[in-house]
Amino acid sequence: MQNSLIENKKRHLILVLLFLGWCLSYLDRMAMNVGIVEIAKDFNLSPSVMGIVLSSFFAGYAIMQVPGGWLADKYGSRKVIAVAILFWSIFTVLTGMAWSLMSMVVIRFMFGLGEGAYPAASSKAIANAFPKKERPGAQTIMMSSNSLGGVIAPLIATPLLVWIGWKNLFLTIGILGIVVAWLLWHYLKPENMKQDHSEEEVSEKASFKDVIKIPITWKLAIMWFGMSTVIWGLISWMPPYLVGARGLDLMSMGMLTSIPALTGAIATVIGGQLIQSYLSGKEKLIAIVSSILVIVCLYLLYNAPSVTFVITFQSLCTIFHGLVFATIFSLPHKVISKTNIGTAIGIINLGGMIGAFLAPMAMGYLIEKFNGSYTPAFIYLIVCAVLSIVAAVALNKKRDLSFENNVIISGGKSI
């Protein structure tokens, strides 16, 4: 009994630290989205070039998703997590030292490579530290940090941007990252990752070729492509939209953009807990209905008569997005073995990060092409969200949503 309580405390400490690592990664990313207005002035950037700067991070981030998952499965989550945070923190510091447009693009690409290994590795750590029945809940709590990071980041980054400038902002956040890297290396020791083995999973570590044959990973990847396009399109372009099209100042913009992020975080946590308990088996329905409501909120957001309604509809949009998000990242822990979860999550997140890479760049191009109009950019988000609905409809309850049908055994076959 005493040992069980100690192991439970260790698991929750690990979850807190993984959550902190995600918040840091979001702070690093959001610092650029908040700072891009001032950076654009210093480098004299057009909307399309601003989109390229914002997308350069996602190019590196997307490329590293699958290799990061494979590395975590092969060498363990602890090493990959510590190296990833240290690597991206160094390039966060270098972001503040960028001397030209090209240097900024290269630095942000390298920064993305560093961060790209963290999602799958952190999911691997959840699988290693928690019993199977607790993993979906732990995963969604950890992933709610994405939205919570969106709350914290503007509240931290915007005042710092105003007080010390964008260069010192990135220097400060980079130093913080080095501290977080040490904490995770220190606490993710093998003795702290022990769990109850009463539910042993009969599976073997599969090759990359075997894991990519699991159909649900690709369906979830397409769903995440659509939803990631929506959320990162909004995160990247709502600050310029609120300042340029709606007439807000930097500080007001930073405070208001934290509200939708908070509602998204709450929806992700609640959605994850509901999926783990009361709504288990209804993931497909949740994803379809929530994706449709995301599209409705996008339309209402752009056509809102005031800033108050803009933030209201954006908040509703992030709530329904959070429910889809919780579905996408809790399902793998229910239907895929922990020995292969790193690679599977890497594939799923690759789909999302392709969407995140394209969104800022495509929206910037459309805004410039149509003389500053945001209408085509919002239409682009809606079209991509439709893909999420199509992929959710394609989920098959017997084939995709069963653990037995997604477990790799000897010979590289699923059972």
UniProtKB/TrEMBL annotation:
Subcellular location: Cell membrane
A Pfam family the protein falls into: MFS_1
GO molecular function, one term: transmembrane transporter activity
Matches recorded under Gene3D superfamilies: MFS general substrate transporter like domains (1.20.1250.20)
Lipid bilayer topology: Multi-pass membrane protein
Chief subcellular location: membrane
Domain Major facilitator superfamily (MFS) profile residue range list: 14-400
Cellular component terms per the entry's GO annotation: plasma membrane
Record-linked CDD domains: MFS_ExuT_GudP_like (cd17319)
Keyword tags: Membrane, Transmembrane, Transmembrane helix, Transport
Highest taxon of the lineage: Bacteria
Annotated PANTHER family: FI19708P1-RELATED (PTHR11662:SF399), SOLUTE CARRIER FAMILY 17 (PTHR11662)
Protein name: MFS transporter
Upper lineage: Bacteria, Bacillati, Bacillota, Bacilli, Bacillales
